Amino acid sequence: MSNFVAGVDEAGRGPLAGPVVAAAVVLGEQVISGLGDSKKINAENRALLSEEIKQKSIAYAFGSSSPLEIDCLNIHNATLLAMKRAIKALNTDLTTVLVDGKFTPNMPFDMRAIVKGDTFVKEISAASILAKVSRDRTMEKYDACYPSYNFKQHKGYPTKSHVSALKKFGLTPIHRISFRPVFDILNHRGSAK
Hints:
193 residues; 5 strands
């Protein structure tokens, strides 16, 4: 029986809109150069690495939590739920799961939280890259649905242009109403678009 180790990370805890996306990756003995914290890798290299990770990994999978789940559960619990979904979707015999950060979902594996794991644990780095690329692509699709908000550029994060669009056009169905300033704008306007 193989002793598989999975790395898990998420993207999208801080934005005002869109899902939080988690990825889980089993690399085994594969070596992929250039892995690291996805936020410190430019978009072009992230996309290339994402394809290489998918090709070389033993298994990879995604899980997400919707804006509604984030509002109902809070971002912490919604993130753990997305991670749990990604791990379950691996459908691989795992012995150990390494999770970036301080917390792990409650699952029947050897679960280890590693602060800044995306900088030095290859499996977590790979998961970080997959999660970031996947979420960015999701937000680019939403950009086509809601062109006034420029999701393609800021990916839902609270930039000046995003907050300005929120104030001008109101909310979309993908905004997280429990997050400020979305909450404040909703209460001020009294209705969502």
